[in-house]
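Board notes, transcribed. Complex of a protein with iron/sulfur cluster.
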Amino acid sequence: MVVNVSRKKTKGITESVESDSLQLLLEFRHRIRACCEEARKVNGKPKIVYLWLCVTERGIGHSGPSGANGSGASTLALHEWLTIVDEAASMGSDWLVLTLLTELGRHPDVFRVAEWAQKTHGMTIGFHLGVPTLTDAEIKQLERFDRQKTRIMVRREDLDKMRHLQALGFTVWTANPQEEGGKPDCQGPARMIYVNAKGELYTCGLVDGHPDYRMGHALERPLRAVVADPSVPHYVDESIHTVSPACDGCPSLVANFFRDNL
Ligand code: SF4
């Protein structure tokens, strides 16, 4: 039996099928996204994904008397940094980003913390190099890390200095993917724990040192308690929420620009 269907009608049917398919596809994508979001939550609360540590010239992990850095804050010993990594991993963190405001090889404990995070917890490591040069010895240290789970980050203008690492199998990312001055395309600190080189917890790198955004010290109480504490600042005020060099290397920002090869 030949069914006579006019072109107009066929077009209408096709459009309707296409629109139904599109609707289904949209619903499917929506559900997949919702599942992914759900998988990132624990007890209905967003899960921590990133641990972001900042390393200054004084380094991290060096022992010394309490208040040795002149701030009154205790300096953390290596085993205490490793405990922070353990705690963050137990909260779901699968990324450790180390922002180095000094040469990568200057403080060997940095490699020990990173190695612990990757080998013990399977974390992906982001080495954010504030000093964009690497010696042969530093490259040799990097080669101990799993290339698939290691990212090297430098400012956009320094990317060419790191091209040789790509030949060694490393992925090199821009530490400042977004122009300065605008509103950051970041997820904010919601899924991130930021610890500065003194072991102080701040809402994020942008407000490191700002007393209104200090969340305590990593030795004071478990990270889980800090993250769940509604009385500490979990958001940055809109008035200062602007991309600046202090956002360089921020995992919450960088990850948004490199979603496809996370
Ligand atoms: S450091 Fe900048 S990009 Fe990162 S969470 Fe804070 S405001 Fe957003």
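Residues 7-39 form the longest helix (33 residues). Residues 184, 186, 188-189, 204-206, 236, 241, 247, 250, 252-253 surround iron/sulfur cluster (CB under 6 Å).
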